[in-house]
Write a structure and sequence with these properties.
By secondary structure, the protein is an alpha/beta fold. It has a single domain, classed as Alpha/Beta hydrolase fold, catalytic domain (Rossmann fold, 3-Layer(aba) Sandwich). Helix content is 35%, strand content 26%. The chain is built from 8 helices and 10 strands. The strands form 2 sheets. It has an 8-stranded mixed β-sheet with strand order 1-2-4-3-7-8-9-10, sandwiched between helices. Helix 2 crosses helix 3 and helix 3 (88-95) crosses helix 8. The protein is globular. It starts with 12 loop residues before the first helix and ends with a helix.
Length: 279
C-alpha cells in the first residue's frame, strides 16, 4: 500500500504519516483483496516469480498470456510500501489475455506500525519503496532502484526484444516517478508511459532535467485522483513530463489515489491505441 507519509509535499511529516495510515486502512479492502474474477483472469496466464541475487535481491514477477499473441509488454512499478506480488491484482484487471506483464519489486524495505485504540494492539505493515528518506542511502536509493530495473529489463525483455511486442511502463504513485526516470534514458525502447496518481520524489525530479532528456513526443497518459492528498504532486509530475516533450493526456478522476474501474479501462485503451497506431 502506498505510504502517503513518503510523498514530497509541504507540511508536517507526522501529519502526512497519520493521513497516510487513515487512507491506507480505508482503502485496504478494495486494494489488497483478490476477487473471483481476478483469480480467473490470472488462471488464464502463465505466472513466474523470480529473485535476482547479486549484491542485493530484486524480486520480480511475470504474467504471460497462455494463448494468443500479446499486443504489448507492460512493466509495472508499484507504489511505496507495496510489493510486486500484491500488484498482480492490478495487472489482472488491466488485461492478462493480451498483455505481457513484468512486475518489479522496489529494493528498499519499509515498515510502519499502527496502534488500534480500541484493542491496544499494534499491527505491523511491511513493504518496499523505490526511494528512502534515510541519510544512509546515497540519493535516497534511487540509483539502486534504476540499476535493478535495468537488470530486470535485460533478463526478461532485452534477450527477446525483437520478438516482443511494444513496451509500455505503468507507474503508481512513487513508482510513477521512477518509471519516468527510467524511460528518460530509454526513450527509444518505450512506446508509452502511464502515470496513475504519480509523483516524483525530489531526487527523481532533479533527474528529469529538460537539459538532459527529451521524450520527443512520447505518449503519456496521466490519471490523477482529484481527492488524493497529493493530487498537486501528480499534477506537478504531469507538467514536468510535458516540459520534457511528452505527448501528454491528463485524465482527472473523482477519486482518491487508488485505482478505479475507469482507470483500468483508460489504461487498456491507451495501450491498445498506441500498440496499433504505431505499427
Amino acid at each position: 500500500m502506498e505510504a502517503l507519509w513518503k510523498r514530497p509535499v509541504a507540511g508536517s511529516m507526522i501529519v502526512g504519516f497519520v493521513f497516510g495510515l487513515i487512507c491506507m486502512v480505508h482503502a485496504d479492502q478494495e486494494y489488497v483483496s483478490f476477487t473471483t474474477g481476478d483469480s480467473l483472469r490470472l488462471a488464464a496466464c502463465t505466472q513466474h516469480d523470480y529473485i535476482w541475487r547479486g549484491n542485493i535481491d530484486c524480486s520480480y514477477k511475470t504474467l504471460t498470456p497462455k494463448s494468443g499473441l500479446p499486443i504489448a509488454t507492460l512493466m509495472l512499478f508499484h507504489g511505496s510500501g507495496d510489493n510486486a506480488a500484491n500488484f498482480t491484482k492490478i495487472a489482472a484487471r488491466i488485461d492478462t489475455s493480451r498483455i505481457n506483464h513484468v512486475l518489479i519489486q522496489a529494493p528498499v524495505a519499509t515498515a510502519w506500525y499502527v496502534d488500534d485504540p480500541a484493542t491496544g494492539e499494534v499491527t505491523a505493515y511491511q513493504g518496499y519503496s523505490w526511494v528512502a528518506d534515510e541519510s544512509s542511502w546515497v540519493d535516497g536509493g534511487l540509483s539502486l532502484s534504476l540499476y535493478l530495473v535495468e537488470r530486470v529489463f535485460e533478463r526478461v525483455i532485452s534477450p527477446n526484444q525483437e520478438k516482443l511486442p511494444p513496451i509500455f511502463l505503468l507507474g503508481f504513485r512513487q513508482g510513477a516517478g521512477v518509471a519516468a526516470a527510467w524511460a528518460a534514458s530509454h526513450r527509444e525502447l518505450v512506446r508509452g508511459i502511464i502515470l496513475v496518481s504519480g509523483y516524483a520524489d525530489p531526487v527523481v525530479d532533479t533527474i528529469l532535467d529538460p537539459q538532459l532528456f527529451n521524450y520527443e513526443g512520447l505518449p503519456c497518459l496521466s490519471i490523477i485522483g482529484t481527492e488524493a492528498l497529493d493530487a498537486l504532486d501528480s499534477a506537478g509530475l504531469s507538467s514536468r513530463m510535458r516540459e520534457l516533450g511528452a505527448d501528454l493526456d491528463v485524465k482527472f478522476m473523482n477519486r482518491d489515489a487508488q485505482f478505479s474501474p475507469r482507470d483500468y479501462d483508460l489504461i487498456r485503451e491507451f495501450i491498445l491505441d498506441h500498440s496499433i497506431t504505431a505499427e
